[in-house]
Amino acid sequence: MEVRLRNGIHLPGCGLWLDPKRKAPIGVVSHAHSDHAGWHEVTIATPATMDLMRARKPPPAGITLVELPYREIFTTDRARITLIPAGHVFGSAQVLVETEEGSLLYTGDFKRGESLTCEAAASVRAGTLVTECTFGRSRYAFPPIEETRKRIVGFCNRVLIEGETPVLLAYSLGKAQELMAILSREGISPVIHESVAAMSAVYAKHGVDLGSHMVWNGRNHGGRVMIIPPNARRRLAALGNIRSAVLSGWALNADAVYRYGCDEAFPLSDHADHGELIEHVEEVCARRVYTVHGFTEEFAGDLRYLGMDALALGGGNQLELLR
Ligand SMILES: [Zn+2]
After folding, report:
1. pLDDT at residue 315 above 80?
2. Which CATH architecture has domain 145-266?
3. CA of 269 to the centre of ligand 1 (A)
4. What is the sign of the dihedral through the CA atoms of 106, 89, 172 and 249?
5. Is the per-residue pLDDT at 77 higher than 80?
6. DSSP string across 308-319
């Protein structure tokens, strides 16, 4: 199946765009993170993703919204579209496109393994696979998730005992809710930023229990754990007596604490690590793999080393010459 990297992933044979950056005639949105989401003339997404997008920005008048639950089929004149759980954030989906030319699976952003707030990623077979590879280098191997959760809770308790305010820096959609669920299991009720609250309300509407919490009003954080998106941290400067930790797969980089300007870094990721990426590719059993988003050339090279037909979508692919 012909695949182009042009305004997101473009499938010219069936007139479809997957995660288009600009308004497209028919766009499938894999999940509600702002670098993937947008309103299109016909917008196809899971009901949860659609609600998360609405919470950020209402759809313009005159467009068609297709809310497609996981594993149900939507048919256009040239393709059958099925959304498969991606395990990345609530509502996130991989996109299976089936046409007369064959089948294609686009992973969007995905994570394998257990999450407390979204359905685990599934794998389906497809002739062509377009996979993300944010952490597509072998040095990115995340520790067991329970170990990371214990370290985060331990950090919060330690800072509280020392009379300071623990601040967890996490994106308002996905990571923040996963943290709320982790803290809730330990009986910790956090104070959350308003942007986190807006996204959490959609989780609650869809029945995801994030435990008790309060919305930050600028004063009510004494003796509480705070969850704040990194782009709102300027408001923390006036607080004093805080200790901050960033939650990111990039915490595996030795310079993470310096790069994020925080006290600690924990590798809580909503993406697959290198080993999970390989497992996923192997399970899909595609004849041709394209890599997008991240270490595209390096990861395509790793797949070719394993005997697969793999290319970075959008060029490159010279790495095997260097091996
Ligand atoms: Zn994402």
Report:
1. no
2. 3-Layer(aba) Sandwich (3.40)
3. 11
4. negative
5. yes
6. --EEETTS---G
- Whole-number Å distance, alpha carbon 283 to ligand 1 midpoint, is 22
Distances (CA, A) of 171 to 29, 150, 245, 286: 19, 20, 13, 33
Q: What radius of gyration do the chain's Cα atoms show? A: 20
Confidence (pLDDT) at 308: 97
Q: What's the CA-to-centroid distance between 109 and ligand 1, angstroms?
A: 5
- For residue 238, report the distance from its CA to the centre of ligand 1, in Å: 31
Chain Cα centroid distance, residue 318: 28
The confidence score (pLDDT) of residue 9 equals 97
Say if residues 245 and 263 touch (Cβ distance below 8 Å).
yes
Residue 174 CA to ligand 1 centre (angstroms): 8
Task: Domain ranges for the chain, please list them.
Answer: 4-139+271-322, 145-266
Per-residue pLDDT tens digits for 101-123: 999 999 999 999 899 999 999 99
Q: Using a CB cutoff of 5 Å, list residues around ligand 1, an ion.
A: 33, 109
Cα–ligand 1 centroid distance for 107 (angstroms): 11
Single-letter amino acid code for the residue at 63: I
Residue at 240: amino acid letter:
G
- Residue 309: pLDDT above 70? yes
How much distance in Å is there from the Cα of 182 to the middle of ligand 1?
Answer: 20
The pLDDT value recorded for residue 244 is: 95
Distance CA 175, CA 141 (A): 18
Can you tell me the mean pLDDT for 12-26? 96
What is the token pair recorded at 33?
Answer: 């993170």
Query: Cα(58) to centroid of ligand 1, in Å?
Result: 20
Q: Say what percent of the chain tops pLDDT 70.
A: 97
Ligand 1 mean position, distance from CA 39 (Å): 16
| Distance of CA 34 from the midpoint of ligand 1 (Å) | 8
Topology (CATH level 3) of domain 4-139+271-322: Metallo-beta-lactamase; Chain A (3.60.15)
Would the pLDDT of 32 be above 70? yes
**Angle in degrees, 0-180, between the axes of helices 175-185 and 194-205, rounded to the nearest 10:** 80
